[in-house]
Every structure is written in C-alpha cells, then in structure tokens.
Amino acid sequence: MAGKGYEQPDSPEASILDCKINLRYCLSSNRTVRQQKETLTTLKKIVFIIFAVFLVGACSSDPDSPLGNEFIDDGTLGGRPGTVFQDTIRVTSGDQSFFVGSRLDKNPTLSLGLKSGYLSSMVVKFDFSGVGPDTLRIVDRASLRLKDPNFLPGDSLIARFYELLEEYNEGDTLQALQIDPTPIPDEGLTNVDREMPTGTANYLLPTALVQDWIRGDRPHNGIAVVVRDTISGKQFSFGSRENSEKDDRPLLAVNFTDGAETKFSPTDDGTFVESTTSTTNLVISDGFIRRILVPVDLSGFDPDNFIHDAKLVLNADTTTDLGIDFSVLLYAPDSDDPADPSVRSGPGVSTGFVNFVSNQLVLPLTDRRRNINILQLFVGGERENNGLALRFYSEGQAVRQVEFYTSASDTLGPRIIITASEAPIFKK
After folding, report:
1. If you average pLDDT over every residue of the chain, what do you get?
2. DSSP character for 22?
C-alpha cells in the first residue's frame, strides 16, 4: 500500500505484531482466516477474565450466613424466629426406688453368706428326666458336691438345705425364696444345721428323697442353701455351672445298690440376694434388683415450644457404693406404678456411667443420630408421660449398688436441664 498507511508484513510474526499496533487494520486487512480466529479467541479470553474479576469483587461484599444471604427483618417474611432459652426442671416429689426381684445368674460363682448388707443364698436344680435304667435302681448314697475355688483353710459357715416349692429356672427373677419350711436333713442324722467348710466338700442327702426325685414320685424344683450364720459377716463363693473350670461346678453324685453310679450336673443355678439394710436415698442395685423412678413434670412447658437438648442429672452419695461396674440404662417405663410389672419395660433413652470424680450421673434425653427426644414426645402426647426409670445395665451380673440423693435435697436432688426455643411468631 502506497502513501499513508502500514506496509503489509510478509511473515505471520510481523502480522501479529502489527495487529497489536492497529486492531482495526488487522481485522480489515487481507489476512488469513486462521489468523483472524486466533485474534478473536485472545480477545474473548481477556474479556472473560475481566468479567470474572468483577463478579468476585462484587460477591466478596456479601455478608456471611448459612444460606448465603443476610436475613433482614424488614417485615417481608411476616414474622420472626422464636427465642432460645435454657431452664431447669426440678423433681420436687414422687421420685422413688422400687424392688424388681432377686436374680444373680450371669456369674461364674454362687454366693453364700452376708456381706455389705446383702444376704446371699444359693439355688441349684438338677434334671432327672430321661435317666432310663436309674428309675429301676435303688439309691444307696447321694451327695451334693460344692467347691469354693478361693477358700481360706479352716474357715466355715453354718447353713441349711431346703426344697424349693416352686420350680426354679435360671434367669427367673424371684420376689421371694419359696422354700419348704422343713430343712433337708443329713442322711442318718437329725441335725439339719450343716457346717460348710471352704474348699471342696460333699454333703449327704437322704436316699429316699433322691430316689423319689429320680423316679418322678416327688417334684424336684431345686435345692436352696440358706446360711444360718448372719452374725460373723462371712460370705463364701462356690463355683457355678457357668464356671470355666469343670471341677469347680456343682455335682450330684448318686450311687446305687447294684454298684452303678450316676453323676448329675445342674441345669439351673443362681444366687438369691436379699437386702438387710434400708436407706432414705434413691438406690439402684443388682442381685437384689432395685430401680429408680423419676417423675417429669412438664405441666408448665408450652406445648408450642420445642426442646432441642435435655439432660437428667443425679447426684450420687458415694459413701455406700458397692461393686465395680456402674454402667446404667435409662428408659421410659410403660407405667408409672411401681407395683405394675409393666414399669419394668419401656423404650431405652440413653446409657451412661456414674462419674465418681464429680459424683454425678448425667444422662442425655435427646439423641439426633437415633432420632430420640423423649421429652418432646411427652409434650406432644405421642407417648404417655410415665416419667423416667433408671436401672443397672445388664442386670443379674453381680451384687452392686449406687445411691443418689432424693428430691428432699434442694441442691442435690434430681433435675432436668433443657435447651428449648419458643414458637416462631408470624404476622397476620
């Protein structure tokens, strides 16, 4: 091109350089289609970057919020959220302990004697069904073998043997030990008091009685061994049918006049536990099973409000705790009447442990993961409010107890701490 203007470059490099100098000339000049496309792509990238930077700058000025927008109470939403508050519900009356029964069967030992205010008796039952030829034989000698694997040489207890009037099956929760009032005597002896030394000992039983058991002429509901010596405070432990050492388990050895011998192993055994002391505190105990019933008064709670979090707090009197496992279970009982058997059942709410550092037991009443909010169910009428019941986790393991202060104590009695919110207010 002559005169004014730009000389047309002969190379692509010169063309690109020239485009930077005069964009209008590049687009209108006689360039290849490929060169024009490259130029347009470069311009588009520059424009996109500028626009993105503008958006980031604009968004960075927005306030932080869970929904990404600021809530402005300008009346456009027609209301406001409810106020969140915390409150304490004190239990002022009605809290009590109730007796469930005696059961101690998940233990490798049977206990006999008095210890820490609990009196233990042993129950052992044998199965004589299907003995076959033994029903035609005559019993010559019968003895019950009991073994204390951890004995102190030279020590002993005085006890009596009784027949159970009601059949005992392991796992039964007994309200009382129903026994024949006449003790089982030692064969050939008139003295019914038996000296039970530690270690291994065989206790003779009347042959006629065992004969009747084997032949089915007399029901065998079980044998109860009841200690007579409650003054010395002694307690022995004998191997149970669950004991890992076979030689430590109870055994009934029967010898017949024809020289045959049959050894019967127990099918059911357990320890019957009784409490010999009383207390004004709330008590949960195992062996001698007691639970705690705590009423929950929600009459002053607005049903339109919502409970987000709640905890039951109990303060322990640690001067009388007994045992080593203090894991507990809180449940919502099916009845609020301690005399009603259904008070022993109900959905579980939570589990926990007694904290002997703070001397407190704190149990949650809500669990979002398991969708549990028992107080809200009470408030909404979806479950009848029978209060809350506390028991040891996995009862029937060992003699143990924990006492808690009652509602008679203003500062240490049971209480429930809640976090709730008032219902939102909507404008009409």
Report:
1. 85
2. -
User: In this structure, which topology does domain 84-95+295-423 adopt according to CATH?
Assistant: Jelly Rolls (2.60.120)
Residue type, 194: R
Per-residue model confidence as pLDDT tens digits over 173-213: 999 999 999 999 988 777 899 988 878 889 999 999 999 99
Whole-angstrom Cα distance, residue 272 to residue 170? 11
| Contact yes or no for 177/124 (Cβ under 8 A) | no
Structure-block tokens of residue 170: 């392991």
Q: Could you report the per-residue pLDDT of 269-300, keeping only the tens digit for each?
A: 999 999 999 999 999 999 999 999 999 999 98
Beta bridge partners of 266: 126
- The 10 Å Cβ neighbour count of residue 425 is 11
In whole angstroms, what is the distance from residue 33 CA to residue 12 CA? 12
What is the C-alpha separation between 331 and 314, in angstroms, rounded? 15
Q: How far is CA 265 from CA 102, 142, 211, 275, 374, in A?
A: 23, 13, 17, 30, 47
Strands, E assignment, 257-337: 261-264, 266-275, 282-294, 306-322, 327-331
Q: How many CB atoms lie within 10 A of CB 179?
A: 22
